[in-house]
Amino acid sequence: MKALITGANKGIGFAIAQNLGKRGYDILLGARDEARGQEAVAKLQADGLSATFVKVDLNDLEGLASLSDLSDIDILVNNAGIAGNIATEKGALDMSKSPFDYTTADLQETLNTNFLGTHAVITNLLDSLSADAKILNVTIPVSQKYWMPLAYVTSKAAQNAMTFAFGHQFEKDKSKRQIFGIMPGAIATDLNGATAGEGGMVRTPYEAAENITSFLFDGKNHNAELINFDGTVIDNYEPGLMGKNLKDIAKNGLKRKFGKK
Q: Are 77 and 3 within 8 A, CB to CB?
């Protein structure tokens, strides 16, 4: 059994690598910095776990093509990403930064990394996945009223849409593969500067890893789902368009578009 985790040299990614390694998986530890990645590999190996470094730089789309050389991947965890430019006069990590203060460059950089980079990882690995492989995207809610780091949230919204689209295509292809997103809640990482235990809500990366990996092994098919840490499932962003309304749009929308009756 083989698992590739991106952004796994530290934080949540490293904790997930430890968790899966203890379950018997051969770990492919993805990181953009080889020195730090090899240090993390050495830590896993010191604990008796099977681990190998794989260079995964989400900003190097051409370099990600080399992932197609891998084979027999049973689990892919897309954890790597950046918070975007959240610096303000309050400090370098201000998650309450006004959405009006983000520049086009801020948005572009974060989308390129978190969305396009993750897209490239998945598409380059499609032929390398086992027949019943699981792709897990570590993600977040994207419509919180009091928490809106715009660049990060926008990139994750795009990633979530991709999760739905790829999942629906797996269904159309009658594939046994699954792709889904997990929202682990408030976690202390170097992306946000939060402290574990803060407000009684912020958890450690190891607690997050236990929660995240639990959905890989709960025996359920989570394809095309976004799952909150408490198990709440989101399977679409537009519930009002489902059922009769969706069928009406599909049937009558095209007639109206082309002037047919």
A: yes
Please tell me the least confidently modeled range out of 8-22, 109-123, 138-152, 181-195. Answer: 181-195
Residues 6+ apart with CB under 8 A from 24: 1
Q: Which CATH superfamily is domain 2-257 in?
A: NAD(P)-binding Rossmann-like Domain (3.40.50.720)
Nearest alpha carbon to residue 143 among 14, 26, 30, 234: 234
Q: Write out the DSSP string of 175-209.
A: -S-EEEEEE--SB--TTT---TTGGGT-B-HHHHH
The whole-model pTM stands at: 0.88
Contact 157, 142 (CB under 8 A): yes
CA-CA distance, 198 to 186, in Å (whole number)? 9
Taking the C-alpha atoms of residue 4 and residue 78, their distance in angstroms, rounded to an integer, is 8
Return the domain boundaries, the chain: 2-257
Residues 203 and 187: beta-carbon distance below 8 Å: yes
CA distance 228 to 83: 20
Report the pLDDT value the prediction gives residue 144, as an integer from 0 to 100.
Answer: 77
Q: How confident is the model at residue 166 (pLDDT cuts 50, 70, 90)?
A: very high
40-79 tens-digit pLDDT: 999 999 999 999 999 999 999 999 999 999 999 999 999 9
What the block records as the tokens of 210 is 């236990």
pLDDT band at 257, cuts 50/70/90? very low
* Whole-number Cα distances in Å, 124 to 77, 114, 175, 240, 258: 14, 16, 17, 35, 38
